[in-house]
Amino acid sequence: MVSSTNEVRRTVQERPVVVVGRPECCLAVVARHLLLRQGVNPAVLEVSYDADPAALVYALRSKDDNTKLVTDVAFPVVFVGGRLLGGLDRLITMHIAEELVPLLRQAGALWL
Fold first, then answer.
1. Full-model pTM
2. What is stated as this protein's family in its record (predicted)?
3. What gap in Å lies between CA 3 and CA 27, rounded to an integer?
4. Residue 111 falls within a domain, yes or no?
5. pLDDT reported for residue 19
6. Whole-number pLDDT of residue 87
7. How confident is the model at residue 18 (pLDDT cuts 50, 70, 90)?
8. Could you give the CA distance from residue 42 to residue 12 in angstroms, rounded to a whole number?
9. Cα 18-22-25 angle, rounded to 5 deg
10. Residue ranges making up the domain that contains 60
11. How many structural domains comprise the chain?
């Protein structure tokens, strides 16, 4: 289980694809399996049950990002190339639109 936002930040910066969710979250499992089927082995981080996804995303934004706290964020949260991709719905939408694989290649998560 992840103990701090700093640990999530470090993992997001070090790994090309990161899935953040609550323990035993079936939606995080679906996100992970979709990414595995694309040939990506994402880092999966589990946060506590009381973690606020909107606050986590807000805390991880870049220093030059002036956006306000977004309240409609839900776990799991997917990061690609150090940037927030979104939740499972965004991941599936990009997969269906055939935009996911090019993004994964650009992030260095796929080589072929």
1. 0.87
2. Belongs to the glutaredoxin family. CC-type subfamily.
3. 21
4. no
5. 96
6. 92
7. very high
8. 10
9. 95
10. 5-106
11. 1
Distance separating alpha carbons of residues 102 and 30, to the nearest angstrom: 20
**pLDDT single digits (tens) 60-107:** 776 555 555 455 678 999 999 999 999 999 999 999 999 999 999 999
pLDDT at 58: 79
Residue 96 lies in a domain: yes
Give residue 13's pLDDT band: very low, low, confident or very high (50, 70, 90). Answer: very high
The radius of gyration of the chain from alpha carbons, rounded to an integer in Å, stands at: 13
CATH code for position 11: 3.40.30.10
Q: Which residues contact 32 (CB under 8 A, 6 or more apart)?
A: 19, 42, 44
The token pair at 100 is 């996911």
Residue 99, CA distances (Å) to 85, 91, 103 in order: 12, 9, 6
User: What's the pLDDT score for residue 54?
Assistant: 82
CB-count exposure of residue 18 (10 Å: 0-12, 13-18, 19+): buried
22 within a domain of the structure (yes/no):
yes
